[in-house]
Design brief:
about 325 residues; alpha/beta; Cobalt-precorrin-4 Transmethylase, domain 1; 3 domains; five-stranded parallel beta sheet; four-stranded parallel beta sheet; 12 strands
Length: about 325
């Protein structure tokens, strides 16, 4: 880390913990890396394996080829499905072509899929709380026939929703939502439809919850909170919103230190720093290094939650290891 000049202004950085990679993201990246080791390049990946361009570019340099649809994949190379999950039609199409495929869907997303199927088999109409167009939502909607799942994005959507049978409803949620926003929507659903069935706790994943809690803890008193993550990353966008709601004077989403604007730093003495669940730690280190070049930096690590969750890799990649 570069030593600042003697006259450098002082800057306190509150570093959130936990931050960065979650177990599902780590597993998905490992699946691509180990597939490249086992089968050689190229290995094809349907959609971005996770929503972070630095991760995608590193894997691309190793020999991963990222495509939009399955029909762009040749018959003789492995294909990997992203961590966000895919509609059932995608693996069905892969099987029809006898493709070798690996599913990197986060196990917590797979749990939502299973819950939705369970409710459908029980004859319930299903509500999915989530953001339209997000890959995870597309994948969850695609687990069941068209019309089986109604997408709810806001409390206003709850009031406008007209189910076929108000006494026979269930809900599931996208895993990367704002905890507070989701609670508001769930409360509205339960108020309108007291018989609605849901999970014992909402499907928002442990890592999303922990990162939002860490930001809530550090945001008050921060002149600026920086969230390292992609604009395509739902959980990263939610961290910016949580920071602002929790008392930060300003909050910004950045891909890397290169995105920090000098005018953001006017009268800034305390910066909160975190990273979304798909952002690698070296990008956080890059932000710390950039500040150290211009400030006398004091880093305060906040938060006490230790994450010990790990997910197993597909057996195909561990056989003979």
């Amino acid at each position: 880390m570069t030593e600042p000049k003697i006259s450098a202004p002082k800057l306190t950085i509150r570093l959130a913990s936990p931050r960065g990679f979650c177990a599902g993201v780590d597993r998905a990246i490992q699946i691509v890396e180990k597939a490249l080791e086992k089968f050689g390049a190229p290995v094809f990946v349907r959609h971005e394996i996770v929503h972070n361009r630095y991760v995608v570019e590193r894997l691309r340099a190793m020999g991963a080829v990222f495509v939009s649809e399955l029909d762009q994949c040749p018959d003789d190379r492995p294909v990997i499905f992203s961590a966000h999950g895919v509609p059932k039609s995608v693996p069905a199409a892969a099987r029809a072509r006898d493709l070798l495929f690996l599913d990197a869907t986060c196990p917590l997303v797979s749990k939502v899929h299973l819950d939705a199927e369970r409710h459908f088999d029980a004859g319930r109409e299903i509500v999915l709380i989530g953001h339209a167009g997000h890959p995870e939502v597309i994948g969850t909607l695609g687990q069941l026939p068209d019309g089986a799942v109604a997408l709810i994005e806001t409390v206003q959507d709850v009031h406008a929703f007209s189910p076929r049978d108000p006494a026979n409803l269930a809900f599931v949620t996208q895993t990367t939502l704002s905890v507070d926003d989701t609670l508001e929507i769930v409360t509205a659903l339960k108020s309108r439809f007291p018989a609605i069935v849901g999970p014992h706790r909402e499907d928002i994943c442990y890592a999303t919850t922990n990162r939002q809690d860490a930001v809530k803890h550090l945001a008050k008193g921060c002149d600026l909170v920086l969230v390292v993550g992609s604009k395509r990353s739902s959980n990263s966008q939610r961290l910016v919103e949580v920071a602002l709601r929790s008392g930060a004077k300003d909050a910004r989403l950045i891909d890397s230190a290169d995105d920090i604007h000098a005018d953001w730093m006017t009268d800034v003495q305390v910066v909160g720093l975190t990273a979304g669940a798909s952002a690698p730690e070296d990008l956080v280190d890059g932000v710390l290094d950039a500040f150290a070049q211009n400030y006398e930096v004091t880093v305060e690590e906040t938060g006490a939650v230790r994450e010990t969750v790990t997910f197993k890799l597909p057996r195909l990649l561990t056989e003979g290891a």
